[in-house]
Design a protein that fits this description.
About 50% of the residues lie in helices and about 10% in strands. It is built from 5 helices and 8 strands. The strands form 2 sheets. A 6-stranded antiparallel sheet has the order 3-8-4-5-6-7. Helix 2 packs across helix 3 and helix 3 packs across helix 4. The longest helix is centred in the middle third of the chain and has 94 residues.
Length: about 290
Amino acid sequence: MSHTAHIPSHRKPRRRASKSALRAGVAGGVLSTVAVAGAAGPAQAEPVTQTIEMPTITSGLATAVAASAQATQQVALDLEAQAHEDAAAQDAAKAAKKAKAEAVRKAEAKKKAEAAAKAKAEAEAEAKERAERASRTAARTTLSAPSSSSSGNSATTSAPSSAPSTSSNATGSAASIVAFAKAQVGDAYVAGGTGPNAWDCSGLVQAAYRSVGIDLPRVSQAQSTAGTQVSLSNLQPGDILYWGAAGSAYHVAIYVGGGQFVGAQNSSTGTVQRSMDYDRPTGAVRVL
């Protein structure tokens, strides 16, 4: 036996043939690729002369610019419209203020005119009242004169006792009431009127008695029972005549003597002096 027979060998085992073939194929492919690349190298080195067109963006930019301009114009229009509205509001406020001042001025002028008219009416009423007082005084004087002469003349013929008394026999308060009533003849008739230039029936009677300090009820129903009931054949000047039942009379007037009365009749005739035969009353009351 040799002395080297038991020394293991350091040589690697042989590779399989398939792996060797695979490596050989890969190496060959790499070399082929390098060869192809080397062959193509000179052709790619030539400069590129073809021009590449980039997509244009001018159309989109123009649209954006146009939209921005339109928006700016709209803002300007809005500002202008707002300015017009503000100016119109200021003008309206000035006009309203001026109109208010004018209305106040007219109201004050109207108030002054009404006050002046009222003062004038009061002055005229006062003047008329003074004239009526003077007229009543003159009437009392005139009515008293025949009575005095009659008492001094025994030959005077007296009226029949059945005939109504005449106004010539009225004296004192009765004469004043008669004079007041006659002074209103020709005045207008107004429902609810209490003078001085317009009356209703009970308003005239009340005012006539008030002129001598006697207060009567306001309405004809109450006035028809305000005194002592008297016969129509025994009347005296100043008695109150009524139409309808006592306590529910619908019309009143003042007997002024001589078979006549003064009353505020209606809106057509106004205040008149008429004969009792014109409209015969139902009854009468005496207050004096």
